[in-house]
Amino acid sequence: MTDTTIRREASERERESGEREVDEDELVCPECGGRLETDTEHGETVCAECGLVVEEDSIDRGPEWRAFDSAERDRKSRVGAPTTNMMHDKGLSTNIGWQDRDAYGNSLSSRQRAKMQRLRTWNERFRTRDSKERNLKQALGEIDRMASALGLPENVRETASVIYRRALNEDLLPGRSIEGVATAALYAAARQAGTPRSLDEITAVSRVDKDEIARTYRYVVRQLNLEIKPADPESYVPRFASDLDLSDEVERRARELLRNAKEQGIHSGKSPVGLAAAAIYAAALLSNEKVTQSQVSEVANISEVTIRNRYHELLEAEGNTPSY
């Protein structure tokens, strides 16, 4: 190795070490060692301690327009919505607006309106290229409709859409209705997310009967190896208490009754909805809040006999004697 090569390698090492030192010290003021802050309004980087302007005329990476509320921000934004599994094309396709107006807000002529309507028709046809996509579009529409009726959050709808896509890809639909598999996917997603709905509630908004939903649900869970824990009775308590307009004290007391029942193994083999409804009724009586068995029965969609039986068991497990 020659002297020239040695000197060249040494100079390169010095230059690299100098660059590392600059990188480490770039957030520190070179005058006083204070903290540097970025002033986006003036495009400057200044020291918070001594006020030294370290950098100016920085690049503004934000939009060139201003907005003063969320509606104006959405209207001026030129980017699309994020991709989602809740749409059959994941939201990547375009839509032609239903308003018959041009870019300036002026009404279109009758000939232009007819042309736009024809474009909308062909756009809708091209969005679903084959029977599989048409199947998916119908199922995801059903999931969205039922989830809205049940008041389920967006994460449950997204999970249900993923479950249905898996069932479709693994050919689990032959011999089963689209509505049945879609309902089963939503039922499974709600239980996975910890916001379960009873089978009766699901049946009330579905287009298939209860037996088909239960049968399809078991089949989908088994074939897709979904890990779904048994429904926790406590997960129903907040919704029932809210629908009955009961206090937080009743909700807390109902949770205590259910935890005590779990410790003694009373919940085994019992319907979680029935246990939750009975706990709400018992907690309301213990807290001196007026509620009838028929009101709880209507909210929980179970019979008064079930509430009465579970209510006695919960109070006996806690050592209280129920009043007949």
Automatic annotation (TrEMBL):
Q: Which UniProt keywords apply?
A: Metal-binding, Repeat, Transcription, Transcription regulation, Zinc, Zinc-finger
Name one matching Pfam family.
TFIIB
Which ranges are annotated Polar residues under compositional bias? 82-94
**Highest taxon, organism lineage:** Archaea
- Please list where the region (Disordered) is annotated: 1-26, 71-94
A single GO molecular function, which one? zinc ion binding
**SMART domains noted in UniProt:** CYCLIN (SM00385)
The GO annotation for biological process reads: DNA-templated transcription initiation
Q: Where are the sequence repeats?
A: 141-224, 235-316
Residues binding Zn(2+) are: C29, C32, C47, C50
- List each copy of the TFIIB-type domain by range: 25-55
PROSITE patterns found in the cross-reference section: TFIIB (PS00782), ZF_TFIIB (PS51134)
* Record's compositionally biased regions (Basic and acidic residues): 1-20
Entry's InterPro entries? Cyclin-like_dom, Cyclin-like_sf, TFIIB, TFIIB_arc, TFIIB_CS, TFIIB_cyclin, Znf_TFIIB
Its biological purpose: Stabilizes TBP binding to an archaeal box-A promoter. Also responsible for recruiting RNA polymerase II to the pre-initiation complex (DNA-TBP-TFIIB).
Per the record, the similarity remark reads:
Belongs to the TFIIB family.
Could you tell me which PANTHER family the record lists for this protein?
TRANSCRIPTION INITIATION FACTOR IIB, TRANSCRIPTION INITIATION FACTOR IIB-RELATED
- According to UniProt, the name of this protein is Transcription initiation factor IIB
Organism of origin is Halomarina halobia
